[in-house]
Write a structure and sequence with these properties.
It contains 9 helices and 8 strands. With about 260 residues, the protein is of the alpha/beta class. It folds into 2 domains: about 1-80, no CATH class; about 90-265, 2-Layer Sandwich (Heat Shock Protein 90). It has a 6-stranded mixed sheet with strand order 2-4-5-7-6-8. A two-stranded antiparallel sheet has the order 1-3. α4 packs across α5 (about 95-105).
Length: about 260
C-alpha cells in the first residue's frame, strides 16, 4: 500500500515537472497544457479517497511535495493557464506573484530564500495568465542565475505615479554589460545549449508592452540583477491584450530601458 501510494506521489511530481516545462515553452499548445492540468487534478483527487491522510503524509515525509502543497500547486496551475488568456480583469498583482511562486516552487526550494516586501497596490486591468507567464519567467531566470547556496530573491510591489510596479531582484551572477542591450531580443540567450530557447524574456517584454507597461533592468556582474515591471492603473481602450503569438520585434533591444543601479547595488 505504502509503496503503491509513494509511486503515485512520484508520478504526480513527474507530471507537475513536465507541465512546468510546458508553461515555460512558448511553443506549447494551450490544449496540451489544459490536458496536463486536468490529468494532474485527477491524480490529486485519488488521494482524497484515503481515509487517514495524517498517516499517509507521514509515509511521504521525504517526497518533494506534501499533499497540501500538491493541492495548492494544482489550484495555482488552474489559475496560471486559464483558457481565456487574453481576457482582461481587474487584478491584484500580488495574487499573480503568489501564483507564480507556487508554480515555480521547485526551482526555488532549498536554493533561494524569498523575501516579500508588498506595499498595498490598487487593482490593474490586465490578462492574468499572461502576467503569470511573465512573472514565472522572471522568477525562473533569477533562480537559474544563482549558482551558490545563499540565494536571495527579493520581490517588491509599489506604486509610482499612475503605475503599479513589481521588482524582482536576485543575488545571482548578474548580466555582462555586452549582453544587456540584447537581453530582450528573440532567441538571444546567455544560457548553455539546451537550457533555454531565448524567447522567455522577449515574450515577456512584448506582453508588458502590449499592456501599456514597461519592463526594465539593473544588473551588476557578480552581484545580481533586478527586473522591474510597471503596469498602468488605468488602461487605454485601444491597447491589445493578446500576446500569445508575439516573440518581440526585430528592434526590441533599441528601446530597452536600464534602471539606475545606484538604488540597488
Amino acid at each position: 500500500m505504502a509503496e503503491e501510494m509513494l509511486g503515485q506521489i512520484h508520478g504526480l511530481v513527474a507530471a507537475y515537472d513536465s507541465l512546468f516545462e510546458n508553461l515555460l515553452n512558448p511553443a506549447a499548445e494551450q490544449p496540451d497544457v489544459e490536458a496536463q492540468i486536468q490529468a494532474i487534478a485527477a491524480m490529486r483527487e485519488e488521494f482524497d479517497a484515503v481515509n487517514d491522510l495524517a498517516d499517509l503524509t507521514e509515509l511521504f515525509v521525504d517526497a518533494r511535495f506534501g499533499l497540501k502543497q500538491i493541492s495548492e500547486i494544482v489550484q495555482s496551475l488552474k489559475n496560471f493557464a486559464r483558457v481565456d488568456r487574453a481576457a482582461t480583469d481587474q487584478v491584484n498583482l500580488i495574487d499573480n506573484i503568489e501564483t507564480a511562486l507556487t508554480v515555480g516552487h521547485h526551482h526555488l526550494k532549498n536554493r533561494v530564500t524569498v523575501e516579500k516586501r508588498f506595499e498595498p497596490i490598487p487593482l490593474v486591468p490586465c490578462a492574468p495568465s499572461q502576467i503569470n507567464q511573465v512573472l514565472l519567467n522572471l522568477l525562473t531566470n533569477s533562480a537559474q542565475a544563482i549558482n551558490h547556496d545563499k540565494g536571495r530573491l527579493l520581490i517588491r510591489t509599489y506604486t509610482r505615479g499612475e503605475f503599479v510596479c513589481i521588482s524582482v531582484e536576485d543575488n545571482g551572477s548578474g548580466i555582462p554589460p555586452e549582453h544587456v542591450s540584447r537581453i530582450f531580443e528573440p532567441f538571444y540567450t546567455t544560457k548553455k545549449v539546451g537550457e533555454g530557447t531565448g524567447l522567455g524574456l522577449s515574450i515577456s517584454y512584448r506582453i508588458i508592452k502590449d499592456h501599456g507597461g514597461d519592463i526594465r533592468l539593473a544588473t551588476k556582474p557578480g552581484v545580481g540583477t533586478r527586473f522591474e515591471i510597471s503596469l498602468p492603473i488605468k488602461r487605454s481602450t485601444n491597447q491589445p491584450t493578446d500576446s500569445s503569438s508575439h516573440t518581440g520585434g526585430k528592434h526590441v533591444a533599441d528601446s530597452v530601458e536600464v534602471l539606475q543601479t545606484q538604488n540597488t547595488y
